[in-house]
Amino acid sequence: MPSKKIKTHRPLRRVSAADSSVAREVLKTLATLGEPPELTQRRLFIELIPHIYVMRKRFGYTFKQINKLCHENGLKLSQSTIRVYYAHFVPQMKTECEAALVEIEQFTQKITILAAQRTLDSLESRAQMTGGYIPLDQI
Fold it and tell me: How many C-alpha atoms does 6 have within 13 Å on its Cβ side?
């Protein structure tokens, strides 16, 4: 069966080799990632659930506080919708949620250790400058 020619009203435009290779790579990447350029509010919220889980478990955020943060950042979901999505998706995403919680705990421990080390280094340098004496009110 012979292929039909597409009728156009104007001449076909040529594309440079550079433009065509860029277009191929961009489309190939988008096809590989499979992510739409825009997300629905529901899909975005589902992606944020591990972080919201950490906020609730570690810091005690209420759904009202989470709702307020969502609204301030363009996610216009009602408090009851947030509660329903959270209750529905957290059990399904328990592994990701627990991993996020562990990651935050490890990060916090590292920061605490670095802060303690910096304090010790600072005290040590002050002690060297003052000949080993640091008043207790300056510690």
Answer: 4
CA 120 to chain centre: 33
* 52: confidence class by pLDDT, cuts 50, 70, 90: very high
- Let me know the angle formed at the C-alpha of 128 by 124 and 131, rounded to the nearest 5 degrees: 130
119-122 CB contacts, 8 Å cutoff, 24+ apart? none
Altogether, the residues listed in the chain come to a count of 139
pLDDT digits (tens, 9 = 90+) for 77-106: 999 999 999 999 999 999 999 999 999 888
Task: Give Cα 73 distance to the centre of its chain.
Answer: 13
Write down the pLDDT at residue 18: 79
Q: Which residues have CB under 8 Å from 70's CB, separation 6+?
A: 45, 76, 77, 82
**Residue 83: is it exposed, middle or buried by C-beta count within 10 angstroms (0-12/13-18/19+)?**
middle
Contact 52, 86 (CB under 8 A): yes
